[in-house]
Amino acid sequence: MKKVLVVGGGGIGRKHIDGLIRTGKFQVSVCELDSEKLMALKKDYPLEATFSDFFSTDISRFDAVLIATPANLHIQMAKKCCIESVPFLVEKPLSVTLDGVDELIDIAEKSKILCGVAYTRRSVPSFRKFKEIAQSGIAGEIKMANFYCAQDYRKYRPDYEKIYFSKKSMGGGVLRDFITHFVDLAQWILGKPKTGFCISENLVFGDSVETDDSAVVIGKFSEKIVSFYCNGFQKPNELIIDLAGTKGNLKYVLLTRHLSRVLFAYDDSGRWEQLAEFQNEGSDYYLFQAQHLLRMLEGLPHDFTTLKEAAENLEFITKLNSR
Ligand SMILES: NC(=O)c1ccc[n+]([C@@H]2O[C@H](COP(=O)([O-])OP(=O)(O)OC[C@H]3O[C@@H](n4cnc5c(N)ncnc54)[C@H](O)[C@@H]3O)[C@@H](O)[C@H]2O)c1
Question: Coil, strand, or helix at residue 131?
Fold first, then answer.
């Protein structure tokens, strides 16, 4: 059994705890400032130990730390893991600004610590298959892509006005939080993000949040042109990714939380061939990620976003408006 400390027992920390325990391969401890949340977690899960303040916790007894606190805390917490030589997985985005990012990458490289940034979809079979198919050459060379991703965030996080999502300084909003997932996928499948432009607005959520709920971004990834259309208010939960190649188009469609398909069309007949179908992944995202973490800790090849890739993602997002 690997001993893992989950730092932050909020919305996503709870999902990680659940996924880690479901593997049957992790003994889970939790560090959470809020004593009520900690009590509830202790009631719901067989936790090995609990702590309140991460910065005064001795982490040397753990095989890994999973940082699931708001993004403004990620750099300091990841640095502590590097200094104390404990492998870590840190939630996305890597941070809110570029301050301290280069220093963290430098310390992590020098200490050769095993680490990654937890962009979830890199661990999920349907997205892994989509990448494999895109890179197989079936659609020729991919030249353009569109990521259409939108949902009613308020339904999934009724506490959205009280958490990091409502604050710019904590990395909230559709642009700084949600879109970075798809920037990560574009980077993974198509190449490094370069220049980009953006329009983002608070169209629906109103004064209770200082962040945006809607954004359109266009950017260059390697030499490809990529667009992102995202909002956090619409009623249907949709994700459609289109890749346009020189020999045809590939499409990833999330039909429901439990059904997704990869489709291919090589002419204008209107026929889309189904290349793959995935069912019931929705409830296992964090199980897949925990299994992926185990691979990393066992020294096996893994696909977690590197600190450098996550820094490129953050730089792309933070410099969008100034270009
Ligand atoms: N992968 C995904 O799909 C996904 C989804 C949601 C959130 N996230 C990311 O996860 C991170 C956390 O988001 P969340 O929704 O769980 O937020 P949250 O506010 O629900 O939970 C964060 C928790 O961290 C705790 N915390 C803060 N400082 C701490 C400290 N010093 N020591 C211990 N605990 C501390 C808070 O008390 C809080 O309970 C963010 O970076 C967010 O972007 C990822």
Answer: helix
Query: Residue 220 in contact with residue 226, Cβ under 8 Å?
Result: yes
Q: In this predicted model, what pLDDT tens digit does every residue of 163-195 receive, in sequence order?
A: 999 999 998 999 999 999 999 999 999 999 999
Ligand 1 — pocket residues by CB below 6 A?
Answer: 7-13, 31-34, 37, 54, 68-71, 73, 91-92, 118, 120, 163-164, 171, 177
Residue 239 DSSP SS3: strand
Going from the N-terminus, what domains does the chain have, and what CATH number goes with each? 2-120 (3.40.50.720), 125-280 (3.30.360.10)
Tell me the two tokens of residue 87.
């492998």
**In whole angstroms, what is the distance from residue 177 CA to residue 164 CA?**
10
Q: Determine phi and psi for 214, rounding to 5 degrees.
A: -150, 140
Q: Which positions ≥6 away from 183 have C-beta within 8 Å?
A: 193, 217, 219, 228, 313, 316, 317
For the entire predicted model, the pTM comes to: 0.96
The alpha carbon of 111 and the centre of ligand 1 are apart by a number of angstroms equal to 26
Tens of pLDDT, residue by residue over 8-33, are 999 999 999 999 999 999 999 999 99
Q: From residue 122, give the alpha-carbon distance in Å to each of 4, 15, 54, 301.
A: 21, 17, 27, 13
Joined together, the tokens standing for residue 316 give 């792309």
The residue behind tokens 């494999």 is: 132
Which string of b and e fits 153-183 if b means at least 16 CB within 10 Å? Answer: bbeeeeebeeebbbbbebbbbbbbbbbbbbb
How many angstroms separate the alpha carbon of residue 168 from the centre of ligand 1?
14
Q: Is the peptide bond before 158 cis (omega within 30 degrees of 0)?
A: no
- Residue ranges of alpha helices (H) inside 56-161 are 74-83, 101-111, 125-134, 153-156
Q: How far apart are CA 125 and CA 113, in angstroms?
A: 26
